[in-house]
Design brief:
Blueprint: H1 5-27, H2 33-42, E1 47-48, H3 71-85, E2 90-92, H4 103-112, E3 116-117, E4 120-121, H5 145-165, E5 169-172, E6 177-178, H6 186-201, E7 209-213, E8 223-224, H7 229-239, E9 243-248, H8 258-267, E10 271-276, H9 293-309, E11 319-322, H10 331-350, H11 354-362, H12 366-377, H13 382-392, H14 398-404, H15 407-415
Parallel strand pairs: 1-2, 2-3, 4-5, 5-7, 7-9, 9-10, 10-11
Antiparallel strand pairs: 6-8
Length: 424
């Protein structure tokens, strides 16, 4: 569905007077407001193809009406999101859930929707129809070299799809692990994984990155072969300069200090990107900012500080992507809310008085340091984020426009009630 720009203009006209008052009020206290708005306009968050349909749990999946039943419809949904917020300008494909059979046609469709291609994602955590060898006991770490080769070949296939589309990164997440002591030789599993990744790494184009994702537990609960950021970093360092660690906010043990992890990975030049979501317990895959907005802000505090020290462009220096999926919300509304929360946290972190914070840290002034951070966090930056959308031709309130125009009902009218999205 292509969104009529006149609907956005009509929506903005109704809200603009109230918005202008709020924007003028906050602008009075920000010296570099134009620079901040420009950074917000540039900042894009990739949308995963698997999040456009309703997700599931171990107990069931409740598909929503009007879900995208084809890859073309998933592209259209990302185009719709981007038209609403002008901050969702890339799609990340998960193969083989979403195989672009005709890459030339898919590139043209993406161009027409004003979206590009984020990282491509491989899948060796599920067996596929007609697959010769099973991944029941792992993939890249498997004791059988034939299984490892099958997994390696799949990743190379994913790279080739990405090259044809114009992607510049491959994300590898492994479900490899064990559930019982003695089941796995940890050392050999790691060595097999490294050897497998080295074969994949050889096929990376020179201008590509390899993102190595880690997860503390699930689907295995005694060990995960890439179970934390240290193991991911160790692999990335052994592989070479094109390999990086990818941080998924839900892939940590409860109460892990993710902001410290981020800081150290940036210091080592090995932070590649993010999968944004939120959680109460573990990999809940909830809407970004819905549970721990202060943690998200603290992460961005470290990101901005580290990226600025390294001379990195905020918008393009790292890979930014959402990885959320659940049964309860309309997936498109959930994604709009996540993008908004991410940009709010980014804007709040941009407001931090870094000179004052550095002075307070050097003086061991714990109270002052906390006050500086919380002053930025408690600032209502929504008018700044909305202004960046307005200047880019997006909706002042994307969720409200989605609901007012009954966009889900229009998608149902196009697709029907019974469509089921591929993937999760």
């Amino acid at each position: 569905m292509i969104l009529d720009q006149q609907l956005i203009e009509k929506h903005n006209n109704k809200l603009e007077k109230k918005h202008n008052r709020a924007f003028e009020f906050i602008s009075q206290d920000i010296d570099d407001v134009e620079e901040l708005i420009a950074k917000l306009q540039k900042f894009q968050i990739g949308i995963p193809s698997w999040a456009l349909g309703t997700g599931g749990t171990r107990f069931g999946r409740f598909s929503g009406p009007g879900e995208p039943g084809s890859l073309e419809q998933k592209f259209e949904d990302v185009g719709l999101l981007h038209a609403l917020n002008k901050s969702s300008g890339a799609i990340s494909l998960h193969i083989p859930w979403d195989i672009p059979e005709d890459t030339a046609r898919m590139k043209e469709l993406a161009r027409s929707l004003n979206i590009t291609f984020d990282a491509v994602n491989s899948n060796t955590f599920q067996d596929q129809p007609q697959q010769e060898h099973s991944y029941k006991y792992g993939s890249l770490h498997h004791v059988d070299p034939k299984v490892r080769k099958q997994a390696i070949d799949h990743n190379i296939e994913v790279i080739n799809y990405g090259k044809a589309l114009g992607s510049k990164a491959l994300t590898v997440w492994l479900a490899d692990g064990s559930s019982f002591p003695g089941q796995l030789n940890f050392r050999e599993a790691f060595q097999n994984t490294l050897s497998s990744l080295q074969e994949i790494y050889k096929h990376l184009p020179e201008d590509w990155k390899l993102f190595i994702e880690y997860k503390a537990f699930e689907p295995y609960f005694y060990s995960m072969t890439i179970g934390d950021w240290g193991q991911s970093l160790l692999l990335a360092n052994k592989l070479g300069p094109k390999a990086y660690t990818l941080v998924d906010l839900g892939h940590h043990l409860p109460n892990a200090n993710i902001e410290q992890i981020v800081s150290l990975l940036l210091m080592e030049g090995k932070l590649g990107g993010f999968h944004f979501n939120d959680s109460k317990y573990a990999d809940d895959d909830l809407t970004a900012g819905s549970i721990k907005p202060y943690q998200l802000f603290l992460i961005f505090n470290e990101l901005i500080y580290g990226m600025d020290l390294n001379g990195m462009e905020h918008a393009t220096g790292l890979g930014w992507m959402i990885d959320a999926s659940h049964n309860l919300k309309d997936p498109l509304v959930d994604l709009l809310q996540s993008v908004e929360a991410i940009k709010i946290a980014y804007a709040q972190a941009l407001l931090i008085d870094r000179i004052a914070l550095k002075a307070a840290q050097q003086a061991n002034d714990v109270v002052k340091s906390q006050e500086i951070l919380q002053d930025a966090f408690r600032t209502d930056v929504r008018p700044l984020v909305a202004e960046s959308r307005l200047r880019s031709g997006a909706a002042l309130n994307p969720v409200l426009l989605f609901e007012e125009e009954k966009l889900r009902d229009k998608l149902i009218a196009e697709r029907g009630l019974q469509t089921i999205a591929t993937g999760l």
